[in-house]
Amino acid sequence: MSLSARVVVQRGSLALDVPVEVADGEVLAVLGPNGAGKSTLLRALAGLLTPDDGRVAVDGTTWDDVPAGTHLPAHRRPLGVVFQDALLFPHLSVGENVTFGLRTRGVRKAERRTAAAAWLDRVGLDGLGDRRPAQLSGGQAQRAALARALVGDPALLLLDEPLSALDARTRLVVRAELRRHLAAFRGARCWSPTTPWTRWRWRIVSSSWRRGASSRPAPRTR
Amino acid sequence: MLRALVTVPLVLPPVVGGVALFLVLGRNGIVGSWLDDAFGITIPFTTTAVVIAETFVAMPFLVVSVEGALRAADARFEDVAATLGADRWTTFRRVTLPLVAPGVAAGAVLCWARALGEFGATITFAGNFPGTTQTMPLAVYLALQSEPEAAIVLSLVLLAVSLATLLLLRERWLGRAAP
Question: Distances from the Cα of B102 to the Cαs of A79, B65, B66, B96, B172, in angstroms?
Answer without folding.
Answer: 32, 10, 9, 11, 8
